[in-house]
Amino acid sequence: MNQTATAKPAAAAKLDTPAIELDNVSCRFITADGNVTVALRDFSMSVARGEFVAVVGPTGCGKSTTLSLITGLLKPTIGEVRVMGEPVNGIDPRIGFVFQNDAVFPWRSVRDNVAAGPLFRGKPKDQAYELANEWIRRVGLDKFGDHYPHQLSGGMRKRVALAQTFINSPEILLMDEPFSALDMQTRTLMQDELLQLWSAHSGSVVFVTHDLEEAIALADKVYVLTARPATLKSTYQIDLPRPRVMEEVRYEQRFIDISRKIWSDLREEVQIK
Ligand SMILES: Nc1ncnc2c1ncn2[C@@H]1O[C@H](COP(=O)(O)OP(=O)(O)OP(=O)(O)O)[C@@H](O)[C@H]1O
């Protein structure tokens, strides 16, 4: 075989590599009293570059564990986790996070919170603050740059968290129930904002949620996990057209059909005691 004729240029081959791969991963915890909890069993997942993946499953099955494995905070008991084709090894600056609890510094103003990432990464102060102002404007908080987190609503704090994360241009964004503490209206607004930021930014997202509708409305692909020990129950490609408008997409017939299908899978698992 003619190797040179078939081999892809290295750069192109690299771009084909998924952003995230979990390869037959199992994760087992041994608690202080000697009990063993298997959180994931023989679980595989692949997230392409620029893809938005949502992970749903019953409470306590192992959804957050998948994120901890991607960050390198946890190591799999069996299997391998790769980011951009390389085995995970420590904290990766290409990964950003947004969790349910805001990771804002309460003693810093909005502007200082948003500038913290670039400053930490060594950007000169004037550039870091210029960028922070730009992101504060993008998330609609222009008038609140000098406010402190306790002076903001839950939705506004979430905007700070998004600005704080997106300012670092993460190639991978991990989100663990980021909007679950928000009321329904604010949550819908934040979902729209997330989609706008993501589409302008083109990173890969793994979004863990209890809310099946949220998963379908946002994602390109939904992974459904079984009850613990979580293994893969099913995956669904979500073929709803983009751009999606949150308050409209959930009334579309296609959305309702997909929800019904996935819910029938999930219901079986939620009912397992
Ligand atoms: N560090 C740990 N030590 C021991 N057990 C753990 C640890 N982390 C998670 N677990 C256990 O692993 C299981 C899966 O936890 P995980 O947080 O991944 O579930 P989840 O699906 O995200 O849950 P929820 O939907 O309630 O947020 C749970 O039973 C949890 O108690």
TrEMBL record:
Annotated SUPFAM superfamilies: P-loop containing nucleoside triphosphate hydrolases
Record keyword Lyase present: no
InterPro entries the record matches: AAA+_ATPase, ABC_transporter-like_ATP-bd, ABC_transporter-like_CS, ABC_transporter_ATP-bind, P-loop_NTPase
Coiled coil, from the record: none
Keyword ATP-binding set for record: yes
One Gene Ontology term of the molecular function aspect: ATP binding
Domain (ABC transporter): residue spans on this chain: 20-252
Database matches in Pfam families: ABC_tran
Keywords from the UniProt entry: ATP-binding, Cell membrane, Membrane, Nucleotide-binding, Transport
Entry-linked CDD domains: ABC_NrtD_SsuB_transporters (cd03293)
Entry similarity comment: Belongs to the ABC transporter superfamily.
Protein name: ABC transporter ATP-binding protein
Organism: Herbaspirillum rhizosphaerae
